[in-house]
Amino acid sequence: xxxxxxxxxxxxxxxxxxxxxxxxxxxxxxxxxxxxxxxxxxxxxxxxxxxxxxxxxxxxxxxxxxxxxxxxxxxxxxxxxxxxxxxxxxxxxxxxxxxxxxxxxxxxxxxxxxxxxxxxxxxxxxxxxxxxxxxxxxxxxxxxxxxxxxxxxxxxxxxxxxxxxxxxxxxxxxxxxxxxxxxxxxxxxxxxxxxxxxxxxxxxxxxxxxxxxxxxxxxxxxxxxxxxxxxxxxxxxxxxxxxxxxxxxxxxxxxxxxxxxxxxxxxxxxxxxxxxxxxxxxxxxxxxxxxxxxxxxxxxxxxxxxxxxxxxxxxxxxxxxxxxxxxxxxxxxxxxxxxxxxxxxxxxxxxxxxxxxxxxxxxxxxxxxxxxxxxxxxxxxxxxxxxxxxxxxxxxxxxxxxxxxxxxxxxxxxxxxxxxxxxxxxxxxxxxxxxxxxxxxxxxxxxxxxxxxxxxxxxx
Amino acid sequence: xxxxxxxxxxxxxxxxxxxxxxxxxxxxxxxxxxxxxxxxxxxxxxxxxxxxxxxxxxxxxxxxxxxxxxxxxxxxxxxxxxxxxxxxxxxxxxxxxxxxxxxxxxxxxxxxxxxxxxxxxxxxxxxxxxxxxxxxxxxxxxxxxxxxxxxxxxxxxxx
Lengths: 460, 159
Hints:
The structure holds 2 protein chains of 2 kinds.
Chain A: H1 2-28, H2 34-47, H3 52-69, H4 71-77, H5 89-97, H6 101-130, H7 134-139, H8 141-154, H9 160-182, H10 189-208, H11 210-215, E1 222-226, H12 240-243, H13 246-261, H14 267-279, H15 285-315, H16 321-324, H17 328-331, E2 338-339, E3 346-347, H18 349-352, H19 355-391, H20 394-435, H21 439-459
Antiparallel strand pairs in A: 2-3
Helix pairs in contact in A: 1-3, 1-19, 2-3, 2-10, 3-6, 3-15, 3-19, 4-6, 4-19, 5-6, 5-15, 6-13, 6-15, 6-19, 8-9, 8-21, 9-20, 9-21, 10-20, 10-21, 13-15, 14-15
Chain B: E1 8-11, E2 14-17, H1 18-44, H2 50-75, E3 80-84, H3 92-103, H4 114-122, H5 126-135, H6 146-158
Antiparallel strand pairs in B: 1-2
């Protein structure tokens, strides 16, 4: 066992460092959603043949780093770093108005550090507890996905509209698959990319239409005020336990453990709920602001780790919103990683890594993220936020993503692949905007199309 | 390239110049696709397995995406006005009013653990909290005047 661990160590270390550096930088770009950034890059890492341990540390170090640096635009610019940062906007804005945005930033990142360290061992233990049910779960996967999809749809912003829209959406996917199969093309990644990047695709179509373009006219550039930052410790590496007081540390650990166990729920919802639970127990309003921020950002880390790792370790099936979204390429990245539709047979990191490897490399990834993202965002937050908002235009970000759509679409299925990415993105983007049929529900819809529909038609 | 205010649009949650957007789509598309196709052609001469050659070509294509994005970032400046904020502490009492109205507070600064209190002191906020709590003692925190809420109140709601 030790030999196997050591043999993969250099790859795991190298990929973890790359993941941490790349996603520390991406986290600084406000509004860079996790699914649109983590999923395609992880997919790439899988497809160029990086060994399993490297794929795993790349993903985990990336996700953990991103959820630290996303606090920078959230606290200093007052715009959410990504989807997971939105529940922290209210408290962060108050601290900004009080003139202490750096406190908001440091409480958030330090909460994240502590929670990420706790979450990996808790998650591994919980996955071991659930593992005996793995066979049953794999066997009944097609139906479990149906139930999970209905539940996730109901708890999405669209409620019943999202539940009912699952039918037509699944039909669109099945129809597209039948069409491409008729031309000998089998697509997987193109669907993921289309769903993940749907909001951009639908927005680009919208501004082409004259009526909608008129509505989107702005008469001046967006205005942001960048708050000042004050350093209050010596040296390069701050101690998170000194940034948080003992009660904040306690609550952060407690909520990290709880949110590691609730891996099937929406990560944003868990972040909101855990924050409310703690907030109502803190008496003074200032203490409440800072504690809520530490706890909420802690939960963004722990819930992401748990939602990716528990389904991966215990079942090998993407049975959680994170597993079906940003972590999807760890489960399903044909031709290398596959989930077989009929039998529920899986061939992915679930089979390729053992328990010890999940634990050791998981901790390695978290530690790498801490060593890179934590001191970086504590020391250079203001300069980084200033650089990104002054030098990286939104046009450049859109140009990069459109390039990604073209390359991945054409790479996987030629012109047909590209058309599928655009079709899925357009339909999904509109459903998300108009009905609240969000990206998580769309990913579940995709799995119903590839797992549940074949199983049901086999019965008929 | 200069932006023009009459071409500004909101796309994907931020502001862009319509012409710059078209430029970015063309540059981003051309550079990434060009790199991908060129890499596939070149690698095809050295790697015998065409599927592997294609996968590595995809890696170059993705690098092409980033290069395209960098060219766009160089050509097109951000449409953001970034103001270096010096927080006006004059309105601190207004912010506190909005904060207390929004969250409510049980107990005052005196009841806080010493660690939290000294943190407030270091941030030079202790005095402001004490003043606010003295002026709004005994549960009349709800009885806010329009003046108290002021700008901070509206911003608090907006956030």
